[in-house]
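Q: I'm writing a short explainer about Bifunctional chorismate mutase/prephenate dehydratase for a general audience and would like to include a description of its predicted shape. Could you first generate the structure from this sequence?
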Amino acid sequence: MDDELNSKLKPLRDAIDAIDAQVIALLNQRAAIALEVGEVKKHYNAPVFRPEREQQVISRLQALSEGPLESEHISAIWREIMAASRSLEQPVRAAYLGPAGTYSEEAMVEYFGHSIDGLPCPSIDEVFRSVEAGAAQFGVVPVENSSEGAVSRTLDLLLESQVLIGGELALPIRHNLLTQSGALTGISRICAHAQALAQCQRWLAANLPHIERQAVSSNAEAARMASLDPSIAAIAGDRAAAFYGLQVASPMIQDDPHNRTRFVMIGHAPAGRSGHDQTSLIVSVKNEPGAVFKLLEPLARHGVSMTRFESRPARVGTWEYYFYIDVEGHRDDAHVALALAELGKKAAFLKILGSYPRSR
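A: Of course. Here's the predicted structure. Afterward I'll give you a sentence or two in plain language.
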C-alpha cells in the first residue's frame, strides 16, 4: 500500500518541487526590482507603503486567476509577498492597541503582513500619539463593531488629530473562553475588555451566571492575567491563546456569530485612487430647521452614496453634534469632489479624514 501510494505521489511531488524552484527564483527577481523601486522612492522622498497600489496589484491578480485559488487566497499570499518586499526597501512600523495578542495586532498583521514591525501601545490615545510623534509610520485602531457600534474614543481622536485614514479592514471577531487547563474547574473570575464582555453577555448569563466578570484594558491583558492565575478565565482570540499558552475551555462564545470589528489604518500620507475607494469625513451643521437635510442634499444630487452616518455630541454649545460620514468614492473622483465642495460651503465645520481603498 505504501509503495503504491508513494509511486503515485512521487511524480506529483517532483512537479511541485520543480514549480517551487521557479516560484522562488521569480520571487527573488521580484524582490530585486522592489529594491530598485525603493531607491527611486528614496530619491523622491515617496512613501514606501502605498495602499492603493497594493490593492490594485491584488485586484489585478484576482481578475487574472482562473483557479483553483480563490480571491481571498490570492489576497493573503500577495499581501505577504508585498510586505516582505516592503521590509527590504525600508522597515515599516505600525502602532496598535496592545499588548501582544490583541485583535488590533491581528488586524495589523492581516493588513500589513507578517513583515510589519509592530509597536504595542497601552491605549488608543497612545496609538495616535505614536503616529503623530513619528514613533510609527502607521497606527491600527478599532472604529466600530457590528454588535456594539462605534468606538467612541477613536471617533474623538480622529476629530482632534491631524492624522489621515489610509486603509480599513473588517476583522471577524471570534471570542474564546480561555484558561490554563482548558477546564472551568476552580474559576472564580472572567476577565476581558468591556466590549468583549458585552459581546458575550448572553452566553455568560446562560452558562456562567454566578462567576464574577472584570473589565480590563484589553482581551490580551486578560489572557496575560489568566496565564499567571489559574482562577481567572479570559475572553480572547486564538492569537492570545497561543501567545500566552492558554487552552480553549469553550470556543466561539460571542452572542453574534457574525461579529466583526472594523479597523482603520492611520498615518500622514494620503492614499491615492485605487478604483474601489471610500472617503471619511466629519461635519457639523448650524442649529436651524432642516440643516442636516440641506447638508446631505449635495451628496444625493451628485450621486455619492453614504455607507455610514454616525453622530457624536460636539461638547460645545447646547445639543450640537458632529456627524461622522463615510461615502463611496475617492475625494479626487470628479463627482465626489463636486459634492464635497458644495458640502463644505453648507457645513459649519468640515474635516476630511481621508480617502482610501475599501475593505472587500
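A: For your explainer, you could say: Residues 2-43 form the longest helix (42 residues).
Q: Perfect, that's easy to follow.
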